[in-house]
Amino acid sequence: MPFTFLQHMADTRSEIAQLGEFGLINKIKHNVSLRNASSLVGIGDDAAVIDAGNDCVLLSTDILLEGIHFDLSYMPLQHLGYKAVAVNVSDIAAMNGTPEQITIGLGLSNRFSVEAVELLYEGIRAACENYNVDLVGGDTTASSSGLVLAISVIGRAKRERISYRNGAKVNDIICVTGDLGGAYMGLQVLVREKKVFIDNPAAQPDLENHEYVVGRQLKPEARMDIIHELADLNIVPTSMIDISDGLASEVLHLSKASNVGIKLFEDKIPIDNNTFDTALEFKLDPIVIAMNGGEDYELLFTINQLDFEKVKNHPDIHFIGHTHENSTQNILISKAGTIVPIQAQGWKHF
Amino acid sequence: MPFTFLQHMADTRSEIAQLGEFGLINKIKHNVSLRNASSLVGIGDDAAVIDAGNDCVLLSTDILLEGIHFDLSYMPLQHLGYKAVAVNVSDIAAMNGTPEQITIGLGLSNRFSVEAVELLYEGIRAACENYNVDLVGGDTTASSSGLVLAISVIGRAKRERISYRNGAKVNDIICVTGDLGGAYMGLQVLVREKKVFIDNPAAQPDLENHEYVVGRQLKPEARMDIIHELADLNIVPTSMIDISDGLASEVLHLSKASNVGIKLFEDKIPIDNNTFDTALEFKLDPIVIAMNGGEDYELLFTINQLDFEKVKNHPDIHFIGHTHENSTQNILISKAGTIVPIQAQGWKHF
Predict the structure, then answer these.
(1) Which residues of chain B does CATH 3.30.1330.10 include?
(2) Are residues B136 and A13, on separate chains, in Cβ contact within 8 Å?
(3) Which spans in A240-337 are helix H?
(4) What is the CATH superfamily name and number for domain A35-161?
(5) Does residue A141 carry a pLDDT above 50?
(6) Which of B45, B91, B192, B316 is the most buried (most CB within 10 A)?
(7) Considering only CA atoms, which of A347, A265, A255 is closest in space to residue A302?
């Protein structure tokens, strides 16, 4: 075949936006087979699972791109570094594992100074310290456009303690940690204040009464505390996922992977007062925000009813519903008692 | 501290270009300590080394950015996918390990169609098949600028068979696989033909007599064949690195890490005829290209003299010099017998 320029321009063209991120992942996954005996679980969960003798090694990768995942006008570089590590640690938490090593791939345009890179690494180091993770490698390169961060994290778990997305059984209790929707409302506040700042650079951002939600957006924490507590209580969640795209999207993942139906109760969904008030201020329905706002990085998991006694008084684990037999019936029971089908409106970046 | 916009803009500003990639990595490395017992080796070699029972797990990450590492006008997407995997596999080869799993982080702007992504994955899959690597995960996202590829690879090696950069001893034999400078000359040909194409889009690129060097640029191979052969011969290189930035840059890494001097002989440096002729056509000195051209992904390693008998007739391993005591004296003996200090002119992307 003669070499021609631009030979990758195919004759037909289908838009990725039509297929969506999950459609694209399914297409990729479809053609992939596993050859190595050490590859226990591949694409499709929060992390890959790799045989490592007595333990399993967990591996997860995220890329964070300027202009898509963060805006440096309101995301301080230390916080960005911290968050980049935290969201990856959260993927290991979601497997019921413990993070141990991390690599950082960094693409930098020439508007970044050495000092800026040091601020970024200050945040990365703070997160590594907090989560007891070692920065063991990476790649640093120029970027012709914005800041590019690619993080891979290695975690570890005993094989029998790993929680997959596909392990939920009928009549399991659905649990969620912390509270939901805060990170999304924090983003709305920051976007609003940025507009004010652009119109008048002398204006101070007005974040009064919004510290909580802004903090949820700028400095999320991976819930490793919960993972350690579950281990202490000798509970292995029957299924688990972290909430990065929104509760609705994540429960549907669990439903599909585990082949069970999901029934949630609106009055059980945890929403912080500050999130609630901020949503109303923005004329948004707090429950819609809690169901669909992403980036909270809380854990969603299911437990066997027999484990309920052990956690029923936990101050930061909320019991929001239960699984049932019909995997096509994923519903939210509203406070008024009406049945609302759960639909993923999660964060679409394509 | 009150929140302000753009608070990451530090008061002082030092340019990354002044510090250079390796200076920046040293700065990052300086502040990093390892906490987990499983983190055997962190930043500073081709891959991190992690304890995994009987074996060690090797972990390496690369990011490839459009406009910095590749130009899609002459890099077909299948080849890009193949190369992205191969260069990561090469990092595992450079540790004397075997690659097993890979994750792909992908940032796509809306000019990429589903068909384009499929072409990219065609190349990724072909490389996975060739190197017996499993694609086990990744992340797919929109990108506001060009194509972003972040690859992490996991490999495996017996602890006592790992080759580090710092293991070369005095009077070891310096070996290099394949031939050097081809990938660089291939890039020069492609850049020249792209200019012709821009001036006249109807012109067919003239790659006649340059297939070899263009192939070296567009479809490099990781030298896993050599790794398997060394294992069969029961040779563990005393030190090893892959040639991504150019021979001169890599021998200086080995010299510094191992604290030995390097002595190379110009007449032993392997240069393919096609690379030689193309260099002359571009009025470039072939030996300068072989010493400094990057992206060949051949292996540079040192062996104990006692192992020489086992490999001396290998058709694709070249014995280009030896180590000596004085680590500050890194020299090339020219064909005329003159002594030339080795200086890294490797690929600077900052």
Answers:
(1) 37-161
(2) no
(3) 247-258, 273-281, 286-292, 308-311
(4) PurM-like, N-terminal domain (3.30.1330.10)
(5) yes
(6) B91
(7) A255
Q: What is the structure's pLDDT at B1?
A: 41
Provide the pLDDT confidence category of residue A3 given band limits of 50, 70 and 90.
Answer: low
User: Which pLDDT score, from 0 to 100, does residue A1 have?
Assistant: 40
pLDDT at B224: 98
Nearest Cα residue to B158 out of B236, B71, B239, B251: B236
Cα-based angle B137, B215, B82 (whole degrees, multiple of 5):
5
Which of B234, B273, B233, B239 shows the shortest CA–CA distance to B256? Answer: B239
Percent of chain A with pLDDT strictly greater than 90: 74
pTM for this one? 0.91
The letter for the amino acid at B338 is T
Indicate the residue of B72, B101, B105 with minimum beta-carbon distance to A150: B105
Start-end of CATH 3.90.650.10 domains in chain B: 173-341
Label residue A340 left, alpha or beta by phi (over 0 means left) and psi (-120 to 50 means alpha). Answer: beta
Report the CATH architecture of B173-341.
Alpha-Beta Complex (3.90)
Chain A residues near residue B200 by CB distance under 8 angstroms: none
Strand A134-142 with A98-108, pairing: parallel
B331-349: average pLDDT: 84
Q: Which class in CATH covers the domain with range B37-161?
A: alpha beta
CATH 3.30.1330.10 spans which residues of chain A?
A: 35-161
At A70 the pLDDT is: 92
DSSP of A36-67: -TTEEE-BTBSSEEEEETTEEEEEEEEEEEBT
Q: Which strand ranges, in their side-by-side order, compose the sheet holding A48-52? A: A39-41, A48-52, A55-65, A148-158, A98-108, A134-142
Distance CA B325, CA B259 (A): 8
Say whether A227 sits in a helix, a strand or coil.
Answer: helix
Chain B residues whose CB is inside 8 A of the A83 CB are none
Alpha-carbon torsion, ordered B91, B96, B102, B105, to 10 deg: -10
Contact indicator for A170, A304 with CB cutoff of 8 Å: no
Residues of chain B neighbouring A114 (CB-CB closer than 8 A):
13-16, 19, 24, 27
- The verdict on ipTM greater than 0.95 is no
Cβ contact B297:B219 at 8 Å: no
* Cβ-Cβ contacts under 8 Å, B63 against chain A: 105-107, 139, 141, 148, 150
Report helix, strand or coil for A329: coil
When pLDDT is cut at 50, 70 and 90, the band that residue B340 belongs to is very high
Site from B33, B35, B63 to mutate, A interface, most A CB atoms within 10 angstroms: B63
